[in-house]
Protein 1
Amino acid sequence: MNGEINTPKNFIRQIIDSDLQSGSHSTIHTRFPPEPNGYLHIGHAKSIVLNFGIAQDYPGSCNLRFDDTNPAKEEEEFVEAIKEDVRWLGYEWAELRFASNYFEQLYGFAVELINAGKAFVCDLNPEQVREYRGTLTEPGRESPFRNRTIEENLDLFKRMRAGEFADGSRTLRARIDMASPNINLRDPALYRIRHGLIHHQTGAEWCIYPMYDYTHPISDAIEGITHSLCTLEFEDHRPLYDWVLDNISIDCHPRQIEFSRLNLEYTVMSKRRLTQLVQEKRVSGWSDPRMPTIAGLRRRGYTPESIRHFCEAIGVTKSEGTVEMGVLENSIRGHLDAIAPRRMAVLDPLKVVISNYPADQGEVLQAGNHPKDDTLGTRELVLTREIYIDRADFREEANKKYKRLVLGGEVRLRNAYVVRCDEAVKDASGRIIELRCTYDPDTLGHNPEGRKVRGVIHWVSATQGHKAEVRLYDRLCKSAEPGKGGDFLDDLNPESLQVLRDCIVEPELARAAVGERYQFEREGYFCLDSEDSAPGRLVFNRIVSLRDSWGKGGDE
RNA sequence: UGGGGCGUGGCCAAGUGGUUAAGGCACCGGACUUUGACUCCGGUACUCGUAGGUUCGAAUCCUACCGCCCCAGCCA
């Protein structure tokens, strides 16, 4: 839909309201903390709109912070892509930060924890740690290294940093409670050793890297974040988040609040799966228009406004659900209906000869660019004796519910005259190859008297139109919940992309530019493909079809 | 069967003890229409997970039960 949804007071905004009222805070600071190990997707957009939206609506600010504590998975390409996506969505961060900016401070706080007897260097290897951890129903056992002296821990930790120990040989662990029913509190690792990695920000400076659970609360506190918003799976990490801040000398303690992540029907949203699609080349890349990535949606033709609108429309709660694709589609339809200039394009051309129309002669017709917004102006169309209409817009016979061209029947050519079909010319196999029609010269701009024309169809001049390729997209997956019963790859929709190479578009479209979006009347919204179009080669992506209460193509 | 969460019409989602339980999307009618679009009217459907209890009054409070999600990375 167009128009703004009056931003709903979701439970997080309610908490903020009361924090403001109680005087706990006078300004609100949030952050969007992606890990640069992949491209952003529509689920991230939900978080972006939440965090940046709050910063806009309250006196406050929002930082963009890369959670870059695992150089094995992260890349500079992803940080650049993420910055571009956030900006494209319409937001500007107050400050650009990296968790790696805080590595030295993080190290200092770790030393503090050691000095307080709250952290220790553990020599258990990964397998042993797992054994000692216990299970969901049994408590864990304390590490034999748990009671080392502070001096020894300090020495060992310093040597970990100095690179004296091999990967996996030791970790720095918090000293909390191996019997905690919350497994996250069973002496979680704070630092691990990783040699030989070049971190995209810090290079080879470090060979020990802090863990998320340790880094995140401190990064938030350093930045003065007031409300640290994250998804539900971090709910039982919150006690650890709080533990960290309660046990170091920092005077800021942000409040972590969790909300449910977005699930969308007929697509996949996890980074693991999206990465797999890209790596195995099941799609053309992160920006494949079928992908739910921001880059994919952008190339597909979605507008930032529509994505923001969608994110507001679905709300923010703690209950997990799966949103119907229709809600996203509705958002872009609503926006584009209001702003997209109208054009005509024939996707499956069928030649029509207007027998009583003078040959060698074109007639310039003015057509409005938008039925409800005159400020979008008009453009010229050229009507010629030979035109193309869509094959789906003709039938030799049909019942009266069919509002298109029928043998012996009349139909309006959009923005032009009424024509009657006199004959359907067929080839030897019986396939219709051409229609013979006659037009009524007295029907331009007004309806004929005494009879009713059953419908309106679009057309393009056979001599003035331009060839174009049109790509029709369908849902990425066949199943509403891909992978539910097995491998999600088995649920990929083999017909998610349909390429039409012989389309004919109206002359004006030859001047289409990347970034412009059009409505191809009676078909849907389209835009020039940003990657495969070139001068002289028109490639259009269908952003979304028009809503259709009839059933495009098929009917009965 | 440890811990943490969630359960309101097909899908989201308001609701924070007090008349007929918002709204959006979807769906079904109708109006309008040179886009089977848009827009505009109208409409359908709810045991508020279940069962008890407290109360004059419960989606809201209590108890039990059921269902679903997350957690045993030196990932985030």
Protein 2
Amino acid sequence: MKLATWNVNSLAVRLPQLLAWLAEHHPDTVVLQETKLTDDKFPVAELAEAGYLAQVFGQKTYNGVALLSREPAADVVKNIPGFEDPQARVIAGTVGSLRVVGAYFPNGQAPGSEKFAYKMRWLEALHEWLKAELQRYPRLLLMGDYNVAPEDADVHDPVAWAGQIHCTPEEREHFRQLLALGLHDAFRLFEQPPKSWSWWDYRNLAFRRNQGLRIDHILVSDVLKPQVASCVIDKLPRKNERPSDHAPVVIELIG
DNA sequence: ATGCCCTACTTGGTAGGA
């Protein structure tokens, strides 16, 4: 079983790259972030042609998430239940025996800003919801663009980024609180290349210089942890013409 | 360095991203 998460930064722009990537890797389930499409504009037919059903939760211009799967998704949830939010950031569904939660965490802009306060409220609500979701669905993955670099090892220049957005103590504490629910960072279950990032700024030749952050993550629940066969970041799509600034993260489960 | 790039949109500056 292969699953992936990818912040495509506009599916309207990136659809050809997504279709090519799906054809090459044939994952079973994929969550997308920053589709930036209202649901009526989602390319349902093109993805069906590629073999994927789509559960979509979009909005105009910003945000927007989707859950693509070869098998139908059941019990679909959009956004965090009980947390009023005009922004489309979460889509969850049950695919086979797995509960898949796809999420686009708020950016937060700058510590102390109103957007940062929203990020903190959103993270708190996510934590409370997942606590219940894990009780109901022990075989759970939380995958997406977290907009949090959990450790200094996830940052190309930890000194320059110290205290900056994605690297603040508050954000990292929220990440640890998710782990404390009984979740595990699948990428760190394996030895990985040093300087592994999932996002590189479009500016400053950042990709060519490998100056990035690891902010896209897949967390797996306790019972799934022994079934994780691999977890990798696929940097190749970042080398495309007109790439997303994020790379896909891919996980393989056995059993 | 409140700069750099990319996307969307009331299509020309602006907002937002990270």
